[in-house]
Amino acid sequence: MLSGREQVLVEARRGGGWDHVRLTNTKRRAPVAQQMCTSSSPGVSDISPPAECVNRSSGTYEAKRKYHGSNLIDFEDLIGADMDPAALFTCARQYPAVPARARYTATTQPIGAIRQLPALSFSHIGIGMPVAGTWVTGKMNAEGSMDMRQRCAAGERLACARITWMAAAGPTADVLVLADCSKLRCTTRECELERKISYIPNRQNIWVPKNGRAAYGPYLFDRASWLGADAKLPSLHLRCYWGAYAGLGLSYRKTATLFHALSEQLARKHIYIKVDADAIVRPDNLLRFLDALHRTTVPNSAFYFGSTFGTFACTGIGDQCRAFTFNKGFRGMKTAIGGKKPKNRLRESAQWNALQREMLTPAGDRLANQTAVRYALGGVYGMSGTALARLIQSNCQHRVARLSCGGSACVRSVGIMGIHTHEDASVGLCMHLNGVRMVQCGCFHMMNFVDPSPARRSWSIPPRVDVGSANSVKAFFKDDRPDNSRAPQLCQHPIAVHPIKYVADYMRVWQGLATRDALHDDALHSWQQSVLASRAPQL
Predict the structure, then answer these.
(1) Which of 48-57, 69-78, 140-149 has the lowest mean pLDDT?
(2) What is the 3-state secondary structure (H, E, C) of 173-242?
């Protein structure tokens, strides 16, 4: 019997996938109460099965990794399961030949009839966007006479998002905007009283929660008039973030608060996505990707998705992640200059191993030690509702941040902080600790710079390109060239691009991508028709 002081996560997932009940004691490991690893849903996969259900020696996806396991699943390895061909989408640069069945197999599963599932819509998706507090306040006396296009031209990123991808997503979408309020000034007595109840200024005169933890609450300040409700646009849920943002190294704090707010304010969504203000999302392509993922996985699957940092596994023949590594080293690793032994990375530390044993079952702990962790780059990434619930219930991001890991093995470009406190790595590590796999999709174009000047480090389309002309856009992206000579390597239907550091480039990139999508729509339709034709005898 577990004591009242112990936090217990009871997970029961039935009715279409792996039937299992797992009891996980977050204070110490608890035995698996019941495991039934029999697939009861034909034609779909559980991409984050419990470790007890993973057979690494029977030719599974995990066993095919050359050196060690990986927490990654390529999206291309999931497509091809029996589902509606009209819902098929791929993360490949070109639309490939689709196999008769999915290549990813957590275990052997029968392929049965097409799953008749309703398509996803933006009403099933909760979107979170962190912004600066000054972006949502009324800063100009004349702003009331300016529409959102004028505000976008004046440099308001949120206004640019509202008139582009948010407008394309439609009114059924919900967007939670988390604004930094710690430096904003109250203009009403109600705001002043509310803030004094729960918050206190620190030495830098920044208002932070009295309990010392980052928190969120209602937005009490003056709001820019152009952020008002619009029946044609997604619902905007504006909230305040209270907590000192201590630079890149502690960026996990605001991200953890954003996910917590999403789970409470936009409950019961199937998918949750974080979108930075300097990113552009192509809503139709996002829905195609998510719908294909929805139709090829068991109900209530735990997964998260995005584009990974780097192109090599971090564990195996060597450490290829350079500055952003926390994975284990490898046997025979050379000593540092001067004969000193290399310092332990985060996942080689005693603190990490203790936390991993607390959060995982014995079988999960063993599997985790053989698995390299890759994580999604910031900008745009997301997760299923089940994965978000695990992230919130485990309080994982704060627990990981408390781990100490110093020296050259852990400290890199985020100054004196270890990389595990950076928001991208923090989420990735916590997905690993909660037994959640990542679906890798290259169509989330993160840090893939179009501008030839490395000093700009931003997506842009030069003025010489007519963003409304299919031929001009096609020539700029070199879509008529083979993959090995086409630069940048852009998907035929990109899901997101990030970053767009200069607001002046925002509308041109959006218009260029819209023109390009229309150019490749025929290729997507032809691919779907060819898949349908190839399956005709089987139907």
Answers:
(1) 140-149
(2) CEEEEEEECCCCCCCCHHHHHHHHHHEEECCCCCEEECCCCCEEEECCCCCCHHHCCCCCCCEEEEEEEE
